[in-house]
Amino acid sequence: MSAFLAFRTAAFSLLRPRAPNIPCLRQLPIRAVHNVPTRPRDKNIPYRIVQLVDPITGKLSEPLPLMTIIESLPDKKLEYVELVSEDPAPIVKIINKKDAFEKRKLAKKKASAVAKKNVQKEVQLTWGAAEGDYAHKVGRVREELEKGHRIDLVFSHKKGQDLPTPEEMQQQVQTTVEMLADVGKEWKPPEYRGKIAAVFLQGTVVSEPVITAEDLLPRKEKLRMKKMARKEKKQEQKINPEVEDLYQN
């Protein structure tokens, strides 16, 4: 009997799957990922001979050694050579860092303006709303349209209120649209479904993004200027405490 038990134990030990040998994992430090230029620049351009786009005429030069173009830059801190095309031949441009920064700033502001324009919200009104409530809701719609947003203005029936006729519904909708015509317009026709009507408005007063001189300053320079402004404010307050009121108002 004991021999049988020993045999069974040995068989189970052979058939039982072994636990996998998992190596000890060491947590690696996470490094921040910085924006990497999408186009090769300077010595990272994988071509020895390239054509240069003339910055004034926009015409292509004769094939030139890449290093000759790079070495011709008067100040490599202000300019760099960038690969802009590889087909049918490698083409490069001389990029001014300040100009490139301004273009990125403008593109970012335009993208922000487009994002604001695509915001869509809904405001609900009842057909028999009191004058004060109606004015408040229309005022909210006006504020959103002034930001360039899209607004779905929904008119619905509230229990206990008189239901207007279809003609009265259309008249109230049209009156509301005309009240908001200076800040928004209908981007698609209104919809009427039984007791409900919906008006679809798009804000029309979004201004083009304007880049100020402060926008173009590096972040460190902006912080330095703010620090100096706070310091000057404290000095003026010591001379005349009434200056504090001017900053707060």
Automatic annotation (TrEMBL):
UniProt KW Protein biosynthesis keyword? yes
InterPro entries per record: T_IF-3_C_sf, Translation_initiation_fac_3
Q: Where is this region: Disordered?
A: 227-249
For this UniProt record, the keywords arranged alphabetically read as follows:
Initiation factor, Protein biosynthesis
Task: Name one cellular component (GO) term.
Answer: mitochondrion
Q: Which GO terms describe its biological process?
A: mitochondrial translational initiation; ribosome disassembly
Q: Which family does it belong to?
A: Belongs to the IF-3 family.
Recorded protein name is Uncharacterized protein
- Tell me what organism the protein belongs to: Collybia nuda
